[in-house]
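User: quick one, fold this
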Amino acid sequence: MELQLARLTKINSPLLAYAKSVTSQYGEDGIIARLIELVQPKHRYCVEFGAWDGKHYSNCHELLATTDWQAVMIEGNPEKYRDLVKTYAGNDRVRTLNRFVDFEGANSLDNILVECDAPADIGLLSIDVDGNDYHIWKSLERYAPEIVIIEFNPTVPNDVFFVQDRSFEINQGCSLFALAVLGQEKGYELCVCTRTNAFFVKKEKFGMLGIRNNSLNVLYHPYQDGRIFQGYDGTIYVVGMNGLVWQNIRLSSEDFQVLPKAARVFSGALKK
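Assistant:
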């Protein structure tokens, strides 16, 4: 028996040609540079959280190290925040905050940006909180960044709308499809994806990018594109999902069986 998952579309994202990493994880630095060149944000001002030490997998550090961009860098972990302060010590263009960004209240992203006197249409927003990314972007109402980079769960198929519960007690993430729908609701178009990050620009500037088709299947193939189906006899088959990614545990169809082997029988079949 052989199981294969067909690729029905070819990734055709022109911005991926510019992928390059200095401190980013999957080529985001180069894509950001190209997007800024094309979109020309009104305000050279970026916001990033969780920022870690300001370098580790940072989507904003290269901008801050090589250009005159301003920034608010936010990190909730006190130990990582101390390293963040060291990274930008003496840089008066960067404001660092030790906060956990919340959905509402004093630590909502809206209120933090008001506190920092950020421009309403900041140039770039990078969201990476390992779970509630969707909910935090949805909660942002007073600010409309020109470019948004936001993390999604790369094991969710493109045709699945999935958003974890609005809770800091779990870390499950959301699907790219869910972010694309939210982006449309907020006036954005998806323009490129790396392995775990989706890039959005305001709809009125999308035409500057020269992208003919920004449907999900054209821009992205999930890192794991799992499908589950069943044989007539009740055997469960799994394809495109060979492990628990973040736990580094292998999976096979046998891990998903509901019926014991002896009970996997199709009663209506004629026996030879």
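User: anything notable?
Assistant: The CA atoms of residues 106 and 115 lie 9 Å apart.
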